[in-house]
Amino acid sequence: MDLISVVITTYNRPLEILKRAVLSAYNQSYQPIEIIVVNDCPQNAELAKGIKNMLLEIDKDIIYIVHPENMGACAARNSGLNVAKGEFIGFLDDDDEWLEDKLSKQIALMKDDVGLVGCDSIRISGEHKKHYHPSIPKGDQISAILKTNFLGSTSFPLLRTKWVKEAGGFDVNAVSCQDYDLWIRILLKHKYEFANEALVNCYDSQDSTFKNSKSKFFEGCKYLIKKYEDVYSNYQDALLYKINNDAVSVLIFNKDVKTYLKFKKLAFSIKVFDSRNFFTLFIKIFNRLRGKKQ
């Protein structure tokens, strides 16, 4: 059986929430695994000590890394990646939780030419739970991933460690969408598979970049567009799809007209007379209303 490394990054998260994440990895039905916890909040010495004691109570073999200073989520994930010994690797955010068969279900789909395996999730907000299955855009896999991050957050995919390292790990210069950025780099070279069932409990977090920092989300999207401009030059339809889809998302979910207009200005600067620049909002609203009626 191949070893799977699990990297859990944490920043000033309450101990009981982090423990929930760690136990969800520790209690996986698939074995063998190694767990690596990276603490990116060394300034909270009391919490750092509490994490160490909590991990020792669970299993003394859990690897615990404390950064000398706050270095950011991407650097923390890369710290875990650098010491990972597994053939495969999964990243788990400290406020999410894996279902016990997550790794077993995903590794069963990990063929020789597959770089990552995605999955559905359960979105939890208070007492409300919703099964989320992403809509994968039509077209080849490169076009699909350039259009939207259908693979979701860092906690979802299982990845082949070698190819994550070859792709360069997480980009520490990206201000947002860092997970999406890595998925793009992997899918430009390797195939993906998808487990069509919910394998992650994803808890509503108040520190979401998409929710709380619209300008950061916009700048992150612009950074990706610039980073992959050579690729997007061959996929202009995907580029316009992405920009208009992101624009509508910030308007509908965040009611943020200012950022919506920034996205629209960017879309018009690429191609003025494109139908998506005019009709994406109406299509999205129509689909949401139709979904509520069903």
Overview of the structural elements:
With 294 residues, the protein is an alpha/beta fold. It folds into two domains: 4-203, Spore Coat Polysaccharide Biosynthesis Protein SpsA, Chain A, CATH 3.90.550.10; 209-293, no CATH class. Helices cover 48% and strands 20% of the residues. The protein contains 13 helices and nine strands. The chain has helices spanning 15-26, 45-58, 73-83, 102-107, 141-147, 161-166, 178-187, 209-212, 214-227, 229-232, 236-254, 257-270, 275-293; strands spanning 4-10, 33-39, 63-66, 88-93, 96-98, 114-125, 128-132, 158-160, 191-203. Strands 1, 2, 3, 4, 5, 6, 7, 8 and 9 form a nine-stranded mixed β-sheet that branches. Strand 2 (33-39), helix 2 and strand 3 form a beta-alpha-beta unit. Helix 1 runs parallel beside helix 2 and helix 5 packs antiparallel against helix 7 (178-187). The longest helix has 19 residues, at 236-254. It is globular and about 60 Å long. The N and C termini lie far apart (44 Å). The model has no long low-confidence stretch (mean pLDDT 89).
